[in-house]
What we know:
About 45% of the residues lie in helices and about 5% in strands. The chain is mainly α. The chain is elongated and about 90 Å long. About 20% of the residues are buried.
Amino acid sequence: xxxxxxxxxxxxxxxxxxxxxxxxxxxxxxxxxxxxxxxxxxxxxxxxxxxxxxxxxxxxxxxxxxxxxxxxxxxxxxxxxxxxxxxxxxxxxxxxxxxxxxxxxxxxxxxxxxxxxxxxxxxxxxxxxxxxxxxxxxxxxxxxxxxxxxxxxxxxxxxxxxxxxxxxxxxxxxxxxxxxxxxxxxxxxxxxxxxxxxxxxxxxxxxxxxxxxxxxxxxxxxxxxxxxxxxxxxxxxxxxxxxxxxxxxxxxxxxxxxxxxxxxxxxxxxxxxxxxxxxxxxxxxxxxxxxxxxxxxxxxxx
Length: 302
């Protein structure tokens, strides 16, 4: 989860540097001066500067005597020369670019609440579907009217055409209603039985009784059905993909997906948030040119 926080902070930096000359060309001296300016302007969370310098005893008026060399690690992170910055470096960058929510503990709590909310919603959907499936249909219920409720028989010479006509309309209405419900369900791509399978690029709804060779039929997950896709044109990805794309690397083959979770085929593999190294090396090669032009080192281990 920390890797995702780091990626989101870095993505915010890429946006901020477009309008900040210090961040666009980060130097230790400039980063120190920028930090002091925000500290003196009382930007929220200024205590991170003391945490970064590992000096909790220095008086406020003396904080200007910061060692420039301490900001070399921040420069290395922003220019991509290191892919494993310390938490102090990441938190300082988050403060400099005013990333929210911060710090990491606050971001993690928000992320866990969001994930728990999604899980709770999925569980409710599953419970509701199971409840519906457990409810007997009208065709399984046999009504036996009491003898006292039987209508009096009419004379043989009086045809009961009205009763036959009414029963016919009722049956026709029920069949038409059921057909309409099933038609809408299939039109939306959700068959009544609620199952799906992986096509190789996305999940597709299918009848649970369907027989597809070498394909596993799964219980329908609406979120995966709508949002989990394989990215078939990775060279179209940009820096914005850093917080929106997940990847897997199995047997030296890298695949990109539009949502987090497990690999759709090799389910014991959990997808990871994409990094700038993976994005440039296996996705859009143009990113390598951009990072090299800015002296960004992408020699991260896969």
